[in-house]
Design a protein that fits this description.
Length: about 280
């Protein structure tokens, strides 16, 4: 039975706000998804960015089969106490050698902890659908992307991106908006696999995120008015409940890599399946 640790990257205020809108914090969404992908697994949730949160020693983290880092509104280039605590946690994960996986801000935390850099996106935002993600040469045979189509779309909501991978980082996939969409990082004793998009999220959760950030989407030039955001959100919600709908796939311009839950979760499934091999490295 797998024993997983899920690290919330949100602040307490953001966790409560997300529970009001979605019903779960980002970490709770991760835990629910992992329970579906690995039935019988045991999961602990921690909040390492919180003030007063207990710190983890590397030897304590060794008892987990994997660590997962959720998305977050934190900006890792802002050296706030919450960010520093999150980075300290990731340093301990790397020193422990426990395999780890993160999406969106989770990828960014791992990059910064290993010595890379993160920046605000020059094009301001990638939201709802990350389009035309493609493998790099290094990503062609990497197990993280096993089974992926040559080009795929994925759920995404982010205003920051990886600027530079650290030493020991392998660039696995990107698109014309965000160069680093998937990466492996080898640092100290640890191996991290991560993506800039959100394989753990449902399309309903993406729709809620768009509504909450409607003003930001308009400011970024991705929508002209709130009605545009609402229209896209409605289509995503409808696809959530009817993923096989040809008309909804056509209106959103997606295929099964995005519409089907199995397609969206491919990287998480691949990571869990590869854990025995990662742990032996």
């Amino acid at each position: 039975m797998n024993h997983f640790l899920v690290a919330e990257s949100e602040t307490p205020e953001e966790r409560e706000a997300r529970r009001r809108y979605v019903g779960k914090s980002a970490g709770e969404t991760y835990a629910a998804t992992l329970r579906q992908l690995a039935p019988g697994c045991s999961i602990e949730l921690v909040e390492p960015a919180d003030e007063g949160a207990p710190s983890f020693r590397p030897d304590e983290l060794k008892r987990y089969d994997a660590v997962f880092l959720s998305g977050s509104p934190l900006h890792v280039y802002q050296k706030t106490p919450a960010v520093e605590r999150q980075l300290d946690f990731m340093h301990a994960v790397f020193r422990a050698g426990t395999p780890s996986f993160g999406s969106c801000a989770g990828l960014q935390v791992a990059v910064a902890a290993a010595g890379g850099s993160v920046r605000p996106m020059p094009q301001r935002m990638e939201a709802a659908i990350s389009r035309r993600i493609t493998r790099t040469a290094a990503g062609h045979d990497h197990l993280l992307l096993h089974g992926r189509a040559p080009t795929w779309d994925a759920p995404a909501v982010h205003t920051d991106e990886v600027e530079r991978l650290p030493e020991g980082g392998i660039h696995l996939a990107g698109n014309d908006v965000t160069n680093v969409q998937a990466a492996e990082i080898s640092h100290e004793r640890g191996i991290f696999w991560g993506v800039q998009y959100h394989p753990e999220l449902s399309l309903r959760e993406i729709a809620v995120a768009l509504r909450r950030q409607a003003a930001t989407l308009i400011e970024a030039g991705l929508a002209e008015q709130e009605e545009d955001v609402e229209g896209r959100s409605v289509l995503l919600e409808r696809l959530h409940y009817a993923p096989q709908s040809r008309s909804l796939r056509w209106m959103l311009g997606v295929n099964g890599e995005f519409a089907d839950e199995t397609g969206r979760r491919r990287e998480l499934n691949n990571f869990i399946a590869a854990l025995p091999a990662i742990d032996r490295r």
